[in-house]
Structures are given as C-alpha cells and as structure tokens.
Design a protein that fits this description.
Layout lengths: L14 H4 L1 E3 L5 H7 L9 E7 L5 E8 L10 H8 L5 E7 L9 H16 L3 E9 L2 E4 L7
Parallel strand pairs: 4-5
Antiparallel strand pairs: 1-6, 2-3, 2-4, 5-6
Length: about 140
C-alpha cells in the first residue's frame, strides 16, 4: 500500500496553528456578536446560547476580577441552560495577544463540554480572541 502526502506539506500542521482564524476571515457571529464584547485590558468570558433554529437565546458576560483569570459563576450556566438553549459558544479574550489556549483553557473547555452535554446542550465552539483574529477549538479539532 502506498501512502501519499499532500503536495507542499512536509508534516502535520500543529493543532495550535490549525485553529487560528484571521480577523478578516471571521464569521458574522465572531465579528459582530462576540468580538465587540471584549475590552483590550481585561480578560472576559462570553457564553452565547442558541435555540434549535440558530436564534440567540442567551448572552452572558463574565468579567474577570483580575486581568488574567476568568471563572464562570453558576448563575451564568443556569441562565444559559434555562432558555431553550440547544447549542452554546464560549468565547474569551487574551489581552496578552497570544491566541493559543493554555492548559487551563483546554481543561475548562473539555469540562464545560461535558457539563453542557449532561444538560442536552452542544458546545459548538470555544473561541479565544486577540486583536488580529481568534483561535477556534472546533477548527483545531480540539472539541
């Protein structure tokens, strides 16, 4: 059996680089709904819920108490789950300008996906915004 490699590719693209979406290639949800919610100097998290028809049902913003860390309080999860939500998008920003997820970001994403699954809500994506684009867990095949 012969294994063919794609032309022009020497090896696999790293997961981190595969998940980056430049700002000019962002979809309407990222560009118009989520990106305007973030300040440049403080990390924040957004939970966006959507119903079965793709309509926004909930938009919860969590501002961090510190410039570097953000935790989602239970009231936000309750608001998201209680509004006919069948799909959710998590998003947060990295004021440092580095779009790549930390180990804590990866763990929080997987924990959130598991939690939402038990509530019959699909975590569609987790986006990490920086000035020149965003990292997508879905695009990086990490979700």
């Amino acid at each position: 059996m012969t294994i063919f490699k794609p032309v022009g590719k020497e090896g696999p693209v790293s997961t981190e680089h595969r998940g980056f979406v430049p700002r000019d290639a962002e979809d309407a949800i990222a560009r118009e709904l989520l990106r305007p919610q973030f300040a440049d100097n403080r990390e924040s998290m957004i939970l966006a819920g959507f119903d079965a028809f793709g309509r926004l049902t909930c938009l919860e913003r969590v501002d961090s108490g510190t410039p570097r860390r953000c935790a989602v309080p239970p009231r936000c999860w309750r608001a998201l789950i209680g509004e006919r939500t069948v799909a959710a998008v998590m998003a947060h920003n990295h004021p440092s300008g580095t779009p790549w997820p930390s180990d804590a970001d990866i763990a929080a994403t997987h924990d959130s996906a598991l939690f939402l699954r038990t509530a019959d809500v699909d975590l569609i994506d987790h986006l990490i915004f920086v000035a020149d684009g965003h990292f997508s867990f879905r695009t990086a095949e990490m979700l």
